[in-house]
Amino acid sequence: MYLLDTNVISESYKALRGRADPSVAAWLADVALAHCAISSLTLMELEIGVLRMQRRDAAQGALLRAWLEQRVIPEFSGRVLAVDAGVALRCARLHVPDPASERDALLAATALVHGLTVVTRNVADFAATGVPLFNPWRRWAVQENRGRYIAAP
Q1: Does 5 show up as a binding residue in the annotation?
Q2: Where, by residue number, does Mg(2+) bind (predicted)?
Q3: Looking at residues 1-27, what average pLDDT do you find?
Q4: Domains of the chain: which residue ranges?
Q5: With helix as H, strand as E and coil as C, how does the chain read?
């Protein structure tokens, strides 16, 4: 199962308009979103993006609001993972000895606690955490015997 970073969800919005990276669009079309989850932090970041857009461009903000409320939230209903005690404690361990970005560490901790692979463009931000990573912007292949996606050779 996969934990999608905000940049993957944002790319799905572009995919609806035919503007997504082709590799990401192909991965989104191939993966069963029922096998994907998002963090409550991702939902927060998406809401912040919508609110900012509504202030700058009301029409575009309305489109983003509709996408978030009518597509993203229903799609991930029951699969929005909270920052709970287990995630908080695991996150704390990711900060020692070297402090990490709070949001990235919380996302990595969420994936580690739930046994998920983080799907992100920003793999370098998570490399030190030890969390399994997948970057759909790079060439990818399905690892048939395990039913998961890996970087293509």
Answers
A1: yes
A2: 5, 104
A3: 94
A4: 2-151
A5: CEEECHHHHHHHHHHHCCCCCHHHHHHHHHCCHHHEEEEHHHHHHHHHHHHHHHHHCHHHHHHHHHHHHHHHHHHCCCCEECCCHHHHHHHHHHCCCCCCCHHHHHHHHHHHHHCCEEECCCHHHCHHHCCCEECCCCCEEEECCCCEEEECC
